[in-house]
Amino acid sequence: MQKTVKFNDISLYTESFGDIKNPTILLIMGAASSLIWWDEKFCLKLVDKGFFVIRYDNRDTGKSTSYPVGKPGYTFEEMSDDAIQILDAYHIEKATIMGMSMGGMLAQMIAVRHPERVKSCVLLTSMYFAEGSENLPVFSPEVQKFFDDYGNYQPVGFRAQVDYAFKQWQVTHQSERQNNLDEIYQMIELDVSRAIDYNSKLNHSFAQVTGDELTRIKEINCPTLVIHGTVDNVIPHIHGEMLSQTIPNAKLLTLVGAGHELHPDDYDLIIEHILKLS
Fold first, then answer.
1. Of the candidates 28, 94, 24, 26, which has an alpha carbon nearest to the alpha carbon of residue 52?
2. Burial (0-12, 13-18, 19+ Cβ within 10 Å), 224
3. Residues of the chain by 3-state class (helix, strand, coil), percent to 5
């Protein structure tokens, strides 16, 4: 089911799967990525296990509100609160919050800001920002160079946008998992074609964190699953280790050979561990 959630001057496009009477899992995708990167097959596998699933386009992606490039009209705190607006619109009191990469950062913030709305938390390829984070490695040199270059480049036209996004995918999704590159290219074509302004996804690089929630993750008191691949070249595995060691009673699921990705080979194992949170 499709639903557009509107509040103030914001419009967030959402899609849901399954029976709303079932426990809810809200999926928050990473930076510069729309809801389609939560593969529908993954969503339906969650439905088969008894979940009601919601995925949505973050601001500046897909069909949700977009802003001029370089001028995001929001903070990351406001992006995290978007999730609560969506739960309210669906009349859902509590949900499992699952976030990938930047979405995992937002999930951490939600669990601190709105603990009464979070049943459990799943952090996939998420970054650690608490004590000692300044000493942790981040992007590989190849990834850093690409992002530095991309910050100064806005491809013009459908094909240029698709081709450049495909290059980005190839840089940031290096792993030991096998992928069908034709299918990935087609996904990127869909991503570009459905976006209000595809280049506005760059705004996730300009948005600011203004609060201290990411340094207070020891306050997270819900069951938490941290999932991280061993060859992630965007956010190294040590971040997953630190998250699982810092968040009280968090569990770490290490995906050997996985990169910065949610890969079909791992769907069943991930869902098996999500079910253990209940």
1. 24
2. buried
3. 45, 15, 40
- C-alpha distances (whole Å) from 62 to each of 132, 140, 182, 246 are 35, 28, 21, 34
- In the structure encoding, which two tokens stand for residue 67, read together? 């802003």
The domain ranges of the chain are: 2-275
Q: In whole angstroms, give the CA distance from residue 67 to residue 60.
A: 6
The CA distance from 31 to 101, in Å, is: 7
Question: Whose CA is closest to 111, among 35, 191, 19, 218?
Answer: 218
Q: Could you read off the pLDDT of 25-60 as tens digits, one per residue?
A: 999 999 999 999 999 999 999 999 999 999 999 999
Residue 29, judged by CB atoms within 10 A of its CB (0-12, 13-18, 19+), counts as buried
Q: Within 10 A of 114 (CB to CB), how many other CB atoms are there?
A: 16
User: At the topology level of CATH, where does 2-275 sit?
Assistant: Rossmann fold (3.40.50)
pLDDT band at 87 (very low <50, low <70, confident <90, very high): very high
* Interatomic CA distance for residues 91 and 74, integer angstroms: 24
- Please state the pTM of the whole predicted model: 0.97
CA 211 to chain centre: 20
pLDDT at residue 227, rounded to an integer: 99
Position of tokens 């967030």?
12
SS3 107: helix
